[in-house]
Amino acid sequence: MQRPPDPQLLGFLEAYDRHISDLALALREVILEEVPDASESIYQVYTVAIWFGFSGKMKDMFCYIATNAGHVNLGFPRGSSLPDPNRVLEGEGRTMRHIKLRSQRDVERPFVRRYIQTAMEQAARLGAGGTGKSVVKSIRGVPAKRGAKKPRGK
Question: Which of 33, 93, 88, 38 is nearest to 63 (CA)?
Fold first, then answer.
């Protein structure tokens, strides 16, 4: 592992079943293997969301991980403009799309890296450079995601 996860991220993920937190961390590792200098912004809101980009600005983000009770989403802020030869992108919005990943086997499928690379190349054309830093942001008072288990020992 080239960039260990922030301890706060590990704490945020404790609200989820081990299977989901392991999937999120495995997907994070894949993204950072593909784009080691990506900036990482970690949010705890109604879900745990990890955004990757070339600065701390949302406009420079090329993908994100979002936790759910039964799966992890690999999302793309400009996903509607990504080629989808594997027909795995979901979403009906104007720009965002995501891929649902339910198992470690899903994370390891070769097309996952291709979508990350394509999204990164698309964002890189916009001109920002990565810092390789992780920033944790937590919004207190937001209820936990339905389906997430209650934090242990709290």
Answer: 38
Domain boundaries along the sequence of the chain: 7-131
Domain 7-131 has CATH 3.90.1150: yes
Q: Which residues, other chains included, contact 36 with Cβ-Cβ below 8 Å and sequence gap of 6+? A: 2, 3, 132
Task: Give the number of other CB atoms < 10 A from CB of residue 25.
Answer: 19
Full DSSP string of 92-121: -SSS-EEEEE-SHHHHT-HHHHHHHHHHHH
Tens of pLDDT, residue by residue, the chain (154 residues): 578 999 999 999 999 999 999 999 999 999 999 999 898 999 998 899 999 998 778 888 999 999 999 999 999 999 999 999 999 999 999 999 999 999 999 999 999 999 999 999 988 875 555 555 556 665 544 444 444 554 444 3
Residue 146, both tokens = 């339905």
Q: What is the pTM of this model?
A: 0.84
